[in-house]
Amino acid sequence: MNKISEGQRTSRQDVAVPGGLLDEEASGGRTGSLQSSGPLERTPVTATNRLASWLPHLAQRVAGDDPLKGGLDVDQPYQRGDVWTEDQRRLFIKSLLLGIPVPAIIINDRFSAKYQDPLGRVDWRHAVIDGKQRTITLIRWFGGDLAVPASWFRNEHVAGTVDTADGPYVTFSGLTDVGRRCCDHNFLIPIAEGQFSTMGDEAHIFTLVNRAGTPMSDGDLRRAVEVAAGQEGAPTGV
After folding, report:
1. Nearest Cα residue to 171 out of 143, 199, 196
2. From CA 110, how far away is CA 125, in angstroms rounded?
3. Which residue in 190, 153, 183, 181 sits closest to 169, CA to CA?
4. If you count DSSP H runs as helices and E runs as strands, how many of each does the chain have, helices first?
5. Between 86-98 and 177-186, two packed helices, what is the crossing angle to 10 degrees?
6. If we measure between CA atoms, which residue out of 126, 135, 75, 77 comes closest to residue 105?
7. What is the pLDDT of residue 25?
8. pLDDT tens, residue by residue, 168-210
9. Model-level pTM?
10. Could you tell me where the beta strands, DSSP code E, fall in 32-172?
């Protein structure tokens, strides 16, 4: 194996790795070396499983009239907009009901990181680096703003339904007290929480997470759906 000298490591300023993160262009394809300016160091991220309702509760915590003091920032300039369809959100809720593991939501504890916004103000909030669509879905579900098929729940857990072309649907607020507690206690989400002092560091994390791998094509997903539909005993509800 060829050794890389310190001179070789630092001679390419355009591929230096700020904060130990790969400094690649956001567009597809690599345009330069993957070499870093030094050994990579582990990022300060702690991963835990938390109740999914923690994120909606966090989103409501605002101190006074200052939006920077508390709460949850889900709208970063390096992310997409609100792009999930209603059915995509429903399928995410279904995964949680079935206990299917879901990807971790990555957040930044900006206050602990001494993060400052572009105007130099201290930002006390937590920011969603990756997992915006899942976070918005949870906020809408626990806020009673997302309806899913009532057949996914036990009859005794449903207090009221909404008529749709697909049959009766139910929101979180349409569940009984027991039904709401079951959702609250059984919906577990992996949360990866870090402390990054700049939006650039957040954007690097977002880029690394979302550039790894190759997205599944429509054909790949269609083939999986066809296999699941033809498999006896495939889970269809709760």
Report:
1. 143
2. 6
3. 153
4. 7, 8
5. 80
6. 135
7. 44
8. 999 999 999 999 999 999 999 999 999 998 888 899 899 888 8
9. 0.77
10. 45-51, 72-73, 105-109, 126-130, 148-149, 162-164, 167-170
